[in-house]
Amino acid sequence: MGAGAKYRFVFVDRLLATLVNLRHGTTHDLLACWFGVDRSTITRAIGEVRPLLAQRGCTVAPGIRLRSLTEVIEHLGTDARTGIIDGTEIRVRRPAAGSPAGLHVLGELVGHARRTDRDKFVTGKTKQNAVKSMVLTDAEGRVLFCSPVRPGSCADITQARQLGLAKLLADSPYLEVLADAGY
Question: What does the alpha-carbon distance between residue 179 and residue 40 come to, in Å, rounded to a whole number?
């Protein structure tokens, strides 16, 4: 117990890599580049996390394959089903100085880096570095849609507007969508 190499690829990153792989069909090589690990590490992580997700009921319902938010709204509207929508935050590491997701270096006149781009990952609620995703489920709790991640400072309603959710709901047949005050 406790012998062997320690994980540098923490559980949250392994889970995120698995979800990205399942949602978008991203190759293991590409995920390895994104997370800065070897391809075999990604393969092992996905092999470990997928059974954990399946044990907890996180599977795609047979016969239903919804690829966009429009298809999800149409699916819910066919039988006037209830949908549940909420935003979720995933804590991430602070972006490294000089990384494309984080910091931009000013010209040689200033000689130091701005922190404003790194601050967009800090959430207003928990004051931690995070990314946000909007999740839409049916009344039974089956995940029907998970949006692309946005920086943690993005409000729930802003993310819904950027995805066009309000327009889709206005143009759709009657359906009930339960949401918190953030929407």
Answer: 40
Dist CA 9 CA 40 (whole Å): 12
At 12-70, the pLDDT tens digits run 899 999 988 887 778 898 899 999 999 999 999 999 998 898 888 776 556 667 778 88
- CA pair distance 132, 57, nearest whole angstrom: 22
- Please tell me the distance from the alpha carbon of residue 160 to that of residue 73, in angstroms, as a whole number: 13
How many whole angstroms separate alpha carbon 77 and alpha carbon 66?
A: 13
Tens of pLDDT, residues 138-171: 888 778 888 888 877 778 888 888 888 888 888 8
- Which residue in 130, 131, 135, 124 sits closest to 163, CA to CA? 135
Quote the tokens at residue 157: 């309603």
Q: Which residue has the tokens 């909420």?
A: 86
The helices-and-strands tally (H runs, E runs) of the chain is 7, 5
CA distances from 152 to 4, 6, 69, 100, 126 (A): 35, 29, 21, 16, 10
How many whole angstroms separate alpha carbon 49 and alpha carbon 17?
9
Q: Residue 56: what residue type?
A: R
Q: Are strands 82-91 and 176-178 parallel, antiparallel or unpaired?
A: parallel
